[in-house]
Predict the 3D structure of the following.
Amino acid sequence: MVDGRQLTLTNLDKVLYPDYGFAKAEVIDYYSRVAPVLLPHLKGRPLTVKRYPNGVAGQSFFEKNASDRTPDWIRRVTLPVPGSTKNRETIDFAVVEDLPSLVYYANLAALELHVPQWRVSDDGEALPPDMLVLDLDPGAPATVVECCRVALRLREVLSADGLTARPKSSGSKGMQLYADWDRREEPSEYAKKLARALEKDDPRQVTSVMTKSARPGKVFVDWSQNNPAKTTVAPYSLRARERPTVSTPLLWEEVESCRRPQDLVFTAHDVLARVDEHGDLFGQA
């Protein structure tokens, strides 16, 4: 039983991160323990998961549609999906808002949790975006160290516009900045203008262009993550890397002092210790 819900957990000893010896039981344990700070960032947001039934070395797939096997106590919302690659007009999304729902998906080896920058109402209607996100993606040989330099510049620009930026690692190569969005304009347009302004100011370090050939040695400021059809990895979500790294909320002091890529790499164990020390850094604007 998990908070009054009957759940059947399977294959708990299956190792999902073979290089680290991290099994499904540990994935479920991590998500259960981090739930108090994770769930507020999933609340009201249609969920897309990336599942790894045979671990990070095996095949994976994105899952948006909540299947018929999904327990009826998991909240679902039916939303239009124009331009769906599977020719669907609507998708039944899960909205994970409680511990049993989170454990259910962890048991499916849904290692990665991705959500949009908007929520749904109590009636299941899509609301306007409430978050702005800037995804900083380094093109080799650039690393997260260069992303941190760009993030500090973006913090200044956002602050001048009355927006408070919150940083987190991607859990992979780069990082993201978030800010509460006041709906002053369409967020993708605002983010695009911001990215282009930074590119113009520092074209050797920053690009606003998605083309892979434009990225080597630069930080791509991905403004397109604010498109309502797109999702970004959630704060505190695991990532499917060699180790069970986590998309981790950061202190600005950590961004300022970053000198090596490994300075901003945190595993599930690290993140639980950070939460014990700091609470939810993403809940502190």
Q: What stands out?
A: The helical segments are 24-42, 99-107, 144-160, 187-201, 252-257, 268-278.
